[in-house]
Amino acid sequence: NAGVMQNPRHLVRRRGQEARLRCSPMKGHSHVYWYRQLPEEGLKFMVYLQKENIIDESGMPKERFSAEFPKEGPSILRIQQVVRGDSAAYFCASSPLGLAGAGEQYFGPGTRLTVT
Amino acid sequence: DQQVKQNSPSLSVQEGRISILNCDYTNSMFDYFLWYKKYPAEGPTFLISISSIKDKNEDGRFTVFLNKSAKHLSLHIVPSQPGDSAVYFCAASAVGTASKLTFGTGTRLQVTL
Q: From the CB of residue B23, how many other CB atoms can be counted at a distance below 10 Å?
């Protein structure tokens, strides 16, 4: 049973370019969460999605960031016109429960974004 | 506003002894607490959790204690092993928030021989 998969593992972008991060949840999980970890900090919640729906995007920056979880395919976190401050590790997690109740989330290995 | 705090950035413990990692929270709406372990360049790995209706949960060498009145929880690892050396994150979720997690800043545990 494959775990949460994220790709790419490392991504380098120049300022102003777009970054696309992909996440495939664990089999049987329909709830996806994105978190960001800045250097020397804990993980910060960004967005929670179910298939074709954004449930909670309270942690997403208002501009340049968007996320989707289409009916088919992985969840995508998209950052337009990247700036140096976007350099961080981006983690995706999946859960079978979501709104149904509290439960542990299972994390992918992360995508390390570096903006030069 | 740091709602989940891990005030010790690092901890060093001898192999075989007990490791105690602490976590404080401020949001009284939190009702579910988790500990994750993280190695460099990897994602966090779930260790153990506890619901607010309990004050203790045990799984092998790991025990989590919850003191709701003090808004404090701790993770005990007994006996500590070199492979336990990692960063440990405390996380919490609140009723009605769809289980999104609020993380502490982590404690780096070093288990020495």
A: 25
Core vs surface per residue B50-73: b (16+ CB within 10 A) or e: bebeeeeeeeeebbbbbeeeebeb
Per-residue pLDDT 10s for chain B (113 aa) are: 789 999 999 999 999 999 999 999 999 999 999 999 999 989 999 999 999 999 999 999 999 999 999 999 999 999 999 999 999 999 998 876 657 899 999 999 999 99
List of chain B residues whose C-beta atoms are within 8 Å of the C-beta of residue A110: 41-43
Residues of chain A positioned with their CB less than 8 A from the CB of B51: 102
**Statement: residue A100 has pLDDT above 60:** no
Nearest CA in chain A to B37: A107
CB contact under 8 A, A44 and B97: no
CA-nearest residue to B4 within chain A is A42
B99 reaches A (C-beta below 8 A): yes
Residue type, B55: D
Residue with tokens 């288990």: B111
List, in order, residues 6 or more apart from A34 with CB less than 8 Å away.
A23, A45, A46, A47, A49, A67, A75, A77, A90, A91, A92, A93
Nearest to A42 among B46, B89, B98 (CB): B89
Interface membership of B62 toward A (CB under 8 Å): no
